[in-house]
Amino acid sequence: MSEEAREILELDVVFVGAGPASMAGAYHLGRLVQQHNETAEKALEVEIAILEKGKEVGSHALSGAVVDPRALKELFPEDWQSAPFEGEVASDKLWWMTRGKAFPMPVPPMLNNSGKYVASLGKLLKWMESKLEDVGVDVFCEFPATQALFDGDRVIGVRTGDKGVDEHGEQKANYEPGVDIHANAVVLGEGPRGTLAKQLESKLNLGDGKNPQIYAIGIKEVWDLPPGRIKAGEVIHTMNWPLGFSTFGGGFIYGMKDDQLIVGLVVGLDYKNPLLDPHEEFQRFKTHPRLRALLEGGKMAFYGAKALPEGGWWSMPKLSGDGFVLCGDSGGFLNSQRLKGIHLAMKSGMLAAETIFEGLVQGEVSATCLEGYQQRVDESWIKKELFPVRNFHQAFDKGLLAGMVQAGLGMVTGGRGWGFKDRLTTEAGHERLQRLDQPGAPPEPQRLAFDGQLTFDKLSDLYNSGTSHEEDQPVHLLVEDTNICVDRCAKEFGNPCQHFCPAQVYEMVEDESTASGKRLQINASNCVHCKTCDVMDPYQIITWVPPEGGGGPNYSKM
To answer: Which of 44, 53, 138, 210 has its CA 20 to 30 Å from the CA of residue 404?
Structure first.
């Protein structure tokens, strides 16, 4: 399609992704403009919009979640308590788990959730959406931003994806070209491993001088339980089993209202064994006697998975440039020690709004103006929270016990690492995978037989994610060279995409027409948009791009 025929929409500020960072930022910016116009001699006319790739706000939003309400109180001081929380945290427990036992441990200060709230992120975002109209913010769902638009090195807007293209790239009868949206400022709140953030990082070297971002995958189910089984606001975290001493991660169990329960497992995407299957480890987690007793007689209702940026302060990219800022998970705003990021994402969006508002008042949102975003972050409670835990995940490179020791030392040294180093370096998670064709190769993990009642295979879980895609569309998981999958990866790493994907998107299937007798089959319609493949592929030849707008999971009730 010619560039001349593509529709152009002119806005002042566009937020990409309707997560907590963008929702908070857009609302705060709209409110700042309103407050300004109440007293200013010359009113500002500002058009603000949020682009969301899901069918509705919240459909692609997934979190644990225990919410620190700090940012909510700042953003909605009058009515933050009317947010749809599942319950205020009533109790905190920490279990050290072995295969058959769960030993209670003292709850460390960072996991003390007094004054926090169990919540559904999807419900929380819908509540926030209801407030946007009051401040003049438009939300466009089913509009995935697929490409950043540049004028030199300045970001001038985004392009949304075409609709009505078949699997061969041909236009169907319902074809609609994407729109070029031009804006004075683009706020990227796409979530972890964002498509546009990756484009900017590659073109503008946003990661120079930084640690590589380290990710984890969070896998979660919501269960309907018999009445009285668990109280709303009851919070339990677990350590050790089934991941053991060498794999970062742990479990979480949160009580919701209406006798529902959140159960999940976080697995660091820097594990060594390429045959490890995070989804299978999560299912194994539920077979523990304590969890079996908790879930028995209940029914699994919802399922989801999402990558989490856990690298911390030293892994955060350059947060702004000419025409853009990064917020929320796109900028690495997550505290892996506290297992929380929603409040940080919201605050980052609010600081972005204040920075952009300053430029709007001055008459130009310049690169110099947007550089003030980093200063605002540095001077806010975001840095006060994140800097003391800047080496938390990196310390676990040496294993669980060493990481626990380092976490304790960090509390008394202001977050310094081994040898009192201010900054511990690390490597990207996929670089830690051990090859199977070399001495000392890791063993095949013990596989689990799924019973369909307590434990589920990936396709059974996938059904409960509400995932749906238009079948006849281009594959949105781009593999640079599938020959590598067959010729090298099978021998060197055992095709780990078959294991790390929590939705059975990747399969090596029989194919007599190939020399090896195998080929890669991509079941793109299964994709839950977790981005794990983009993160963990050992050759970094998989690129996740947004599918046709509206496709994907439905996490609105998660």
So the answer is: 210
